[in-house]
Backbone:
C-alpha cells in the first residue's frame, strides 16, 4: 500500500530506467507526469589516450621522462642548486640522492597513466609533468605531478609547457575536459591554475592521505567550450610582441585570457 501525504511525493515511478536516470517521471500523489531536467545529448566517440610523442615549443621541449634523467632532475630540485620544497605537496620526494630518484623514474618510464614527461629547457631537464587519470571514453584528462626546478619557475618555458599539454589534449587528441587538482593548501598551484584559465570547482575534503597527512583537494578544470579563448590568451602571451627588449612581459597571461573571453562573449551575443 502506498500512503499519501508528503512521503508520497518522493515515491516516484518512472516510465523508463531506474530512479536517477532522468526523463519522464510520475508522482503517485499527482495526476500529471513531471518532466525532470536531463543533460544535453552528446554525439561522442571515445578519443585516443596520449602517446609518448614529444611536444616541442619555442622555449621548451616535453619528451618522455626516462631513468637517465635522474641526475639532472635531482640536481635541479635538491640542494645545493635546487629547492627540495618543490616536493612538499607531491606524493613522492624529496629523494635521498640521484640513485634513489632513478629508481622512481624507472617506474615512471614504464607507466602509461600517469604518463610522464621531462620538461627540457636549454638542453637540461628542469622539471617533470604528466597526464594522469586519463579517461578516453569520456574525454577527460588531468595535468599533474608537476615539479619545476627553481631555474624553470616563472619563465616563459614553464608557461609554454602547460600550454603545450593543454593544446595537445584539446586540439591534438580531442578531449572535452582538462583537470587540474592540487592540495588545497598549495597556494602556488592554486594561483597557477587561476592564471592558466582553469575554473575553480570546489574542494574535496578529506580526499587523500599523503605522506601521513590529510589532504583536502582543490579541483579546477577547463572544458572544450572554454579552450578557444584560453588558447588565444596563451598565444597572445607567448608572442614575441608581448615581451620587451629585456624579456619582461607587457601584458599578463590572466589579463589576456580575460580579454579573449570578453571578445568571445561579444561575438556570441
Residues:
Amino acid at each position: 500500500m502506498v500512503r499519501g501525504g508528503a512521503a508520497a511525493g518522493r515515491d516516484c515511478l518512472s516510465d523508463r530506467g531506474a530512479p536517477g536516470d532522468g526523463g519522464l517521471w510520475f508522482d503517485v500523489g499527482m495526476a500529471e507526469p513531471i518532466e525532470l531536467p536531463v543533460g544535453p545529448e552528446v554525439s561522442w566517440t571515445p578519443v585516443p589516450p596520449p602517446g609518448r610523442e614529444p611536444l616541442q615549443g619555442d622555449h621548451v621541449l616535453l619528451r618522455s621522462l626516462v631513468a637517465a634523467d635522474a641526475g639532472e632532475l635531482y640536481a635541479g630540485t635538491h640542494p645545493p642548486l635546487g629547492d627540495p620544497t618543490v616536493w612538499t605537496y607531491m606524493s613522492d620526494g624529496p629523494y635521498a640522492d640521484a640513485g634513489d630518484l632513478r629508481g622512481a623514474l624507472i617506474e615512471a618510464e614504464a607507466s602509461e597513466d600517469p604518463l610522464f614527461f621531462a620538461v627540457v629547457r636549454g638542453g637540461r631537464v628542469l622539471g617533470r609533468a604528466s597526464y594522469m587519470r586519463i579517461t578516453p571514453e569520456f574525454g577527460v584528462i588531468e595535468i599533474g605531478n608537476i615539479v619545476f626546478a627553481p631555474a624553470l619557475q616563472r619563465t616563459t618555458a614553464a608557461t609554454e609547457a602547460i600550454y603545450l599539454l593543454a593544446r595537445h589534449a584539446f586540439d591534438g587528441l580531442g578531449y572535452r575536459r582538462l583537470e587540474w587538482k592540487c592540495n588545497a593548501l598549495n597556494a602556488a598551484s592554486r594561483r597557477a591554475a587561476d592564471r592558466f584559465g582553469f575554473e575553480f570547482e570546489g574542494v574535496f575534503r578529506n580526499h587523500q592521505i599523503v605522506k601521513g597527512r590529510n589532504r583536502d583537494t582543490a579541483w579546477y578544470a577547463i572544458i572544450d567550450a572554454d579552450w578557444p579563448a584560453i588558447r588565444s590568451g596563451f598565444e597572445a602571451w607567448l608572442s614575441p610582441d608581448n615581451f620587451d627588449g629585456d624579456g619582461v612581459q607587457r601584458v599578463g597571461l590572466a589579463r589576456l585570457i580575460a580579454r579573449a573571453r570578453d571578445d568571445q562573449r561579444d561575438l556570441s551575443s
About this structure: Helices lie at 70-77, 98-110, 156-172, 187-195, 227-238, 253-268. Residues 1-20 have pLDDT under 50 and may be disordered.
